[in-house]
Amino acid sequence: MSQGELAAVARRARHLTEELRQGVRKTCKDVIDVSSGDLHSAGLKPLSFSRQVFAACLYPELMNSNKLPVDVRQRAQWLLGSCAGGSVGSYTAAAGIPNIVNSVSEFIRRRDGAPSYPENIYISPGSQWSITNILKLMLNSKASPRTGVLIPVPCHSTTILSIVDLGGAIVPYYLSENLGWELQVAELHRALESAKGVCKPTALYVINPGNPTGHLQTRKSIQAVIQFVAEKKLFLLADEVYQDYVHGENEFVSYKRVLAEMGPPFSETVELASFHSVSKGVMGECGLRGGYVELVNVDPAVMKHVYTLFSKDTCAPVLAQIALNVMVNPPRRGDPSHRLYTVETEHIKTTLLHNARRAYEVTNSLPGVCCQPMDGGAFIFPRLALPPKAIQKAKEAGTEPDIFYCNRLLEDAGILTAPGCQFGQREGTYHVRFCILVPVATMEELLRRLTSFHTQFMAEFS
Amino acid sequence: MSQPALNGVSGPGKVLTLDSMNPNVKRVDYAVRGPLVQRAVQIEKELEQGVKKPFTEVIKANIGDAHAMGQKPITFFRQVLALCSYPDLLEDDKFPEDAKKRARRILGACGGQSIGAYSASQGIECIRQDVARYIERRDGGIASNPDTIYLSTGASDAIVTMLKLLVSGAGRDRTGVMIPIPQYPLYSAALADLGAVQVNYYLDEDRCWSLDVKELRRSLHAAREHCSPRVLCIINPGNPTGQVQNRQCIEDVIRFAKEEHLFLMADEVYQDNVYAEGCEFHSFKKVLFEMGPEYSSTVEMASFHSTSKCYMGECGFRGGYMEVINMDPEVKAQLIKLVSVRLCPPVPGQALLDLVVNPPQPDEPSYTSFMKERTAVLAALAEKARLTQEIFNAVPGITCNPVQGAMYTFPCITLPQKAIAKAKEEGQIADAFYCMRLLEEEGICLVPGSGFGQREGTFHFRMTILPPTEKLKIVLQKIREFHLRFTQEFS
């Protein structure tokens, strides 16, 4: 499949999924929608502390009574004091409210044990917005040869489409499914080689933990990628929005941290943009549109243009900036809200772990379904060995085989998923992506329906 | 990792340099948050650190941010939004029933009953329906189809999306986009970013910044020599000019757009900000349809609105929408793809927009206090518009057109030759030099007219009329004194 085809198929599949999602909402059928990583839609609850802080910031009269806990009121007061005119309705500095940007910087420093500077951080309406702005710095539709960005296969379709819409070329590197979707440097080399004479590769985009794969990179793997970009002179784009979803024993280690630990020359030269967001994690506030980028080793002359680019978008929504502050600076032990915060976040974490284990077990028990172990992320991405008759039926219907499977899964079992072709996959392989961040009862119901459906489907097309 | 290293060191070896980066981005400027504003922020820091200055605070009259200047949010809106954020409050009897009703309705339309869930890329359907109904009421019953409404992250996002859709071609066939001079610099920034051709048409300062179709024609014909003009952007009420177009003018523009086969973009974010006697807001959509089917079924148009201005001033929510008329269905399919890459507009902004188009009705408990607040805000703005015009016109060397609408004044300043020469020496445009001096001497931050565009040899600045009346009087006084001093110094 050519790069153009990969992008076109991804776009079409994504559009179909979105339409189905809207259709499902309208008809209110008993459909389990696991097509996107949206905690609240799935039935998991927002955090009380966040929402109390938002309410107090929106309507400060609430702080006149003792109904809201002291730490909520204190946080709201501090936040409102950081807003122009004491209102969340004011514009903010282009990069975000300075106090909040500082808190993000502090968070990064605590997480990584390495310095982080606020002037290198920009808050934006969601991580994809800042990914687009950074890509814009590098991509230009008039460039000849086109500028290339190495992207993993499979990959989050939004980034693929952003690259294509900005006039860039995608250079796919295939993750090794049989090795748990590991990133192999040899494959990076091959991908780069394949770009010769086709485009000018300028950047490498990685997603860690992976979407849709759920693969969590080891420190060694991250080091190898950093060495690769240093050697090949590529700008590194690290999408780390799923960093709070870690299932196993392994730990999430940020690209920034590994870069710092590697010391000079890497730490002083490798150009890196790391992305994070309030959409995932324990917050799950996708609808608020809040994210940030931290830039490392970017040419100061270019940084001036980064500022201008972000400034013409005026600023990120203030409520999202507040959510970001809560995310990086949650209630601490001893704070009145800490206990409830812990209960609520533990619930989300145990739900995730439980669902990851169950989904892995059940999918692997189904004939013709093979799921790689996931160490992190919000999804499961099993491979389907579809019977030739089903593939034939799909072709006759003029649709991709995995779309065909997903459509039947929706019609017959009321489960809305995203087909593998929406993310890219090796030719002749088929996958389906499910979000596992749903209430435990929903997951059990999903797995029950899936098992029943799959058995029937395989029987029908045997 | 030393700070200089984190900030990067210029020079060879970097992947991303001034030379290798996208040349379009280098051409992007946004004066509203440009170097003057950055210096203003620096000065604020210096004041905080105790550095002595001839003033104790920096007055940021550069950006149309009402709340930053002390304007209060509308109580009802904030009540509903608080209820939406923390639905436990629905049990609290301190909140009025009409606020709770709206909150429940909005939450019911959100995934998992949460404003933190993704919405459809085009925006929550029932909110688009409410927007369509608002448009119908505003336009005397002319139908509006919710499918043609796209909610967005502020009007700016929708404007940029439309421009992306409209810009194509190369060389002589490259899309030309007609924009007013002076203009709100988002337009020039977006056009630079997209590599589109900016086609300027001049508003007539001597006639209250009015738009003349003759000038549109002149500009269009000149542009056809080197590009393919396909879009005509109008800002009504105007930014920075404040001009409110009369009905005849709007009809003339629509006729022109039809004759010349141009896509009309009507930026109407200030539609409630109309102050001058004899001026009235007429929406482009309404006039288009009142001109009959010959026009209403053919002219392609997008109208934009936002929650940032008018009487709400809720810039920080990034709420907005566009209504698209007569768009080719194939192009619409492309538009849907474009908006999907943004995932969705911020849901709190969508919720706020719903309240703006669906405010308390006369039979509802919050109606009286809502109307009182709304009226007070608009009356204060009208008074400030009048005051500004009066005071500035009494200053020798400053002439100010009536502020008919919007939130700004854009006076013409006469600068002595010596000042212009001095500015040139320092590598600055004279009005930027003037504004920088004003900032350093008085702590007042404005935006130089050169940031918006102006006729060659003329100079202006844009000031917002947003500070509270007493403070505004002081600001006007200080600018007056500064102007006289400056003129004296360079005479």
TrEMBL record, chain A:
Q: What's the domain of life for this entry?
A: Eukaryota
Q: Which UniProt keywords apply?
A: Aminotransferase, Pyridoxal phosphate, Transferase
Name its GO BP terms in alphabetical order: L-alanine catabolic process
What's the cofactor? Answer: pyridoxal 5'-phosphate
EC number, UniProt record? 2.6.1.2
Mind listing the GO molecular function terms for this protein? L-alanine:2-oxoglutarate aminotransferase activity; pyridoxal phosphate binding
Q: What is this protein called?
A: alanine transaminase
What taxonomic classification does the UniProt entry list for its organism?
Eukaryota, Metazoa, Chordata, Craniata, Vertebrata
Encoded by which gene?
LOC114845094
TrEMBL record, chain B:
Q: Which cofactor does it need?
A: pyridoxal 5'-phosphate
InterPro entries hit by this protein? ALAT1/2-like, Aminotransferase_I/II_large, PyrdxlP-dep_Trfase, PyrdxlP-dep_Trfase_major, PyrdxlP-dep_Trfase_small
**What pathway annotation does it carry?**
Amino-acid degradation; L-alanine degradation via transaminase pathway; pyruvate from L-alanine: step 1/1
The EC designation for this entry is: 2.6.1.2
Q: Which UniProt keywords apply?
A: Acetylation, Aminotransferase, Cytoplasm, Phosphoprotein, Pyridoxal phosphate, Transferase
The molecular function terms of the Gene Ontology recorded here are: L-alanine:2-oxoglutarate aminotransferase activity; pyridoxal phosphate binding
Catalytic activity reported: L-alanine + 2-oxoglutarate = pyruvate + L-glutamate
A single Gene Ontology biological process assigned to it is: L-alanine catabolic process
Q: Where in the cell is it found?
A: Cytoplasm
Membership in a protein family: Belongs to the class-I pyridoxal-phosphate-dependent aminotransferase family. Alanine aminotransferase subfamily.
Which protein are we looking at? Alanine aminotransferase 1
